[in-house]
Amino acid sequence: MVQTDVPSAERRSSDSARLNPGAQEVPLARNSLRPFAAGRARAWFVVILLLPAVAICADWPQFLGPNRDGIYPGDDIASSFPATGPPVVWEKNVGAGFSSPVVANGRLILFHRLGGKEVVEALDAATGKPIWKFDYPTSYRDDFGFDEGPRAAPVVAGGQLYTFGAEGLLHCLQFAQGGKIWSLDTHREFGISKGFFGAAGSPLVEGPRIFLNVGGKEGAGIIALDKDTGKLLWKATNDEASYSSPVSVTFGGKPHLLAFTRAGLVGADPASGEIYFQFPWRARSHASVNAATPLVIGDLVFLSASYGTGAVVLRVSGSQLEKLWSGDDSLSNHYSTSVYYDGHLYGYHGRQEYSQSFRAIELRTGKVRWSEDGIGAGTVTRAGDRLLLLRENGELLLIRATPERFEVLSRAQILPGTVRAYPALANGLFYARNENTLVCVRLRE
To answer: Are residues 382 and 313 in the same domain?
Structure first.
């Protein structure tokens, strides 16, 4: 059942105004331009209109960044770190969880567990100072003795914030004040079992809908909800949930929702849930769970998983899928999603517990260009022609994104281990967390 606490239209309007101050300033700027010549006025007007877009591009409002591909759109990252490491701007003690932070409109959203509660906090992204807090009780227990905090990254969209807890509780909150708009217990509503490590895939918000691969019964493998009310819009497939997060793409001018479920890749119409195609891709082992998010480059889709599954590149043409190559020897991602740059993929290969290697491979052939052993597990983020590798031991490496060789430009210990949550990168500031500390370091020039 959806629980709602919807604010009034007046309050929504007020919240929206506070969240987009750039838009408020445009009319004032137009008035102030009257004394100027028409040409100069037009120039200033163009600059003002561009300001909100620039702010949005600098945000990291969801898992894997603005386009859910691990790529930072800014060009302000320094070419190297100081000998003492990147400057620490602020740090904060945090609770349990693998949920990565997200950043939007000058705020950082932290989703973690403190005692018997899952807690959502809004902090000033530049200083770490608290703005608001929202919490609710949780009794999640991990069957394998791992961290018992939330796993899925929050999502900020349209003046609202969405979180998906370890027990499958989905919340929609006001981004401005943290007030609850609605909530949905997906496990209860769709008859979902606990799974190996609880609910972990981050929701996707696109247009008026929010999408999740919840793995529900009776055709509720993938669901679409109204993002403003939580009302069920459609459900599709009987696929169990994975820990991969869905993505929104366009093929042949047609919008697609892509979900890498526990069974494989599903392509669906975001509006109706009509299935365009399905591609089975998972290990035969019952213990296997797909975790890396699909990467889309043009009409190609890269999927990768561990447990003997391996990687595959598919070409999408309407409802048809053509396999370019596949194998378990190129770039098998356990839980960390790879990134793409200039014809090549860069990512971690092998099982996390067996000391992964970091590799560069050709997208269209799977050919390994280089492989660096001894890196261990971690995450990778791309900023221009450089890669930021955050290792599980808390070391941050800045390397060049080139297929020629593994070239380290700088390295620094920014946290003690163990680091498993994905980082966020916004406005040249890098946010990372381990089991008890969140740190913000400056990477911009």
So the answer is: yes
Mean pLDDT of the chain: 88
pLDDT in tens, 131-157: 999 999 999 998 877 889 999 999 999
Number of domains in the chain: 2
41 and 52 share a domain?
Answer: yes
Distance of alpha carbon 3 from alpha carbon 8, whole angstroms = 16
How far apart, in Å, are the Cα atoms of 31 and each of 18, 27, 127?
21, 6, 34
pLDDT surpassing 80 at residue 36: no
Quick one: CA dihedral 232, 13, 180, 5, positive or negative? negative
Residue of 85, 96, 22, 78 lying closest to 53 (CA atoms): 22
Please choose, from the candidates 281, 175, 160, 165, the residue with its C-alpha nearest in 3D space to the C-alpha of residue 212: 165
Pair (32, 71) in one structural domain: no
Average pLDDT over residues 291-314: 96
For 161, the token pair is: 């914030």
Q: Is the pLDDT of residue 85 over 50?
A: yes
Can you give the pTM of this predicted structure? Answer: 0.88
Distance of CA 94 to the CA centre of its chain: 20
Q: What is the mean pLDDT of residues 30-41?
A: 34
Confidence band of 5 (pLDDT split at 50, 70, 90): low
What DSSP line would sit under 364-391, residue for residue? Answer: TT--EEEEETT--SEEEEEETTEEEEEE
Residues 299 and 316 sit within 8 Å (Cβ to Cβ)? yes
Same domain for 303 and 425, yes or no, is yes
End residue of a domain, out of 57, 77, 103? 57
User: Can you name the residues that pair with 430 across neighbouring β-strands?
Assistant: 425, 441
User: At how many degrees (to 10) do helices 9-19 and 21-32 cross?
Assistant: 70
